[in-house]
Amino acid sequence: MNAKRAKTPTSPTTKLFVLDTNVLMHDPLSLFRFEEHDIYVPMMTLEELDANKKGMSEVARNARQSSRLLDEVVTGAEHHMAHGIDLSGPSRKLATGHLFFQTEAINGVLPISLPTAKADNQIIGVVMHLGQKFPKRPVILVSKDINMRIKARALGLEAQDYFNDKVLEDTDLLYTGTRELPANFWDSHGKGLESWKKDSRTYYRIKGPLCPEMLVNEFVWQEGPQPLQAWVRVGAGKTAELETLIDYSHAKNAVWGITARNREQNFALNLLMNPDIDFVTLLGQAGTGKTLLTLAAALTQTLETKLFAEIIITRVTIPVGEDIGFLPGTEEEKMTPWMGALEDNLDVLNKPAETPAGPGGSAGTYGGDWGRAATMDLIRSRIKIKSLNFMRGRTFMNKFLIIDEAQNLTPKQMKTLITRAGPGTKVVCLGNIAQIDTPYLTEGSSGLTYVVDRFKGWAHSGHVTLQRGERSRLADHAAEVL
Asked: What is the DSSP string of 31-58?
């Protein structure tokens, strides 16, 4: 598309996208994400970028990055401003459209009911003006602000969300990490079946139509007269290898006194307790046992098997990435109010062991209340609570890193956290994508959805979506009916 054609766009094939500020502040690289279509940046968008550039928050960092990127694109192309700046060079062929800036004053387009002092309305005015200027061309407002999109549509303009950050359109399609095998599985996959035993596990090598779909570390199960619970060790090919699981629902395999209460919890404990798995994601509604299972596995591997040096827990304090404020005390003490869930779970894990009375007559209770208090102190000395704000540039060696409420992280923040892992560190992300508190993040664009989708099929990561709540009959019923 040459500059002349860009100046008087008559081709309806390429669209003209008008960018709202929040798109650039959400993803600075959004300039290069519109492929062959053209982009228009109103003057008000630049004004708002300038107003939001101060501070240490994620939004301010993104505003500064967007400004730098725009500066790079504009430098040396001042003479082409009216014709549009070709993006294929700066974007290294990712985008082939043109970038236009508002180079003229636009007046009198908006209805009287919309006050022009408001930045959003001025951007809507730009979209209306462009729609009148290029009647044969689709002019679309791109904004992450729902109310702005509603306003634009009410005025008969086309508006849409910024979709490029969305991993999935429909979270029902999100990888669950588990697969129920059909009833005829062994008939259709049993031809030339190989089976062997190693370290008290049974392995099966199978061939059949499902093998190319099976991902590494995906859990497969089948109910019936011969129930099977296994996970895929080699998959996505003509043959697949299955390995049977350790049964954590049996008391002899209890993890810090905790046993799996359902199938998915058993899958989760197999991931959490396996030293070959470096990255685990657990999704699930409130009360499915995400934090409890993770803490039990962390304590066992830190205090009993000494696989990790200490446990580090971090969670998103909404507002995300802002200063954690004028609470008194150290970083650890400031984070304590956010860590109620941790305290609740430690109480469960450190309850007196429910063992029958021994020869001495007393039930085993960690040596009474004194012993319990001492155990709690020992556990607390190995658990460090950190704020997300101070994670950049750190490296964690031999740590068990738990990221709680991970659904409130953006993909960029998620990358910052996971890349902190040094040798011997295990990272576990917990969250419920139905409970997102961060503005402009949706189920499809959450950092948690992003990592689940990107990590599936890697040999050293695993994911399970926990289905059943195990808190109490009251909590289960409330989740159903309320």
From this structure: GGSSTTSEEEE-HHHHHHHHHT--SSSH
Two tokens, residue 12: 């309806």
Residue 63 and residue 205 in one domain: no
Within this chain, do residues 185 and 153 fall inside the same structural domain, yes or no? no
For residue 81, give the amino acid letter: M
Model confidence at 6: pLDDT above 50: no
- Domain identity same for 190 and 288: no
165 within domain boundaries: no
Cα–Cα distance, 23 to 371 (Å, whole number): 55
Which residue range forms the structural domain that includes residue 210? 171-244
Helix axis angle for 290-299 and 263-272, nearest 10°, is 40
Q: Which two tokens stand for residue 192?
A: 């030339």
223 Cβ contact partners less than 8 Å away, ≥ 6 residues apart: none
**Domain final residue pick, 103, 130, 160:** 160
User: Is a pLDDT exceeding 60 seen at residue 9?
Assistant: no
Classified as helix, coil or strand, 333 is: helix
pLDDT digits (tens, 9 = 90+) for 268-292: 999 999 999 999 999 998 888 899 9
pTM of structure: 0.74
- pLDDT (tens digit per residue) in 400-414: 999 998 999 888 889
pLDDT of residue 2: 39
221's tokens? 């199960």
Number of domains composing the chain = 3
Asked, for residue 190, whether it belongs to a domain, the answer is yes
| Length of the chain as a residue count | 482
Angle at 372 between CA 367 and CA 377, to 5 degrees: 135
Q: How confident is the model at residue 450 (pLDDT cuts 50, 70, 90)?
A: very high
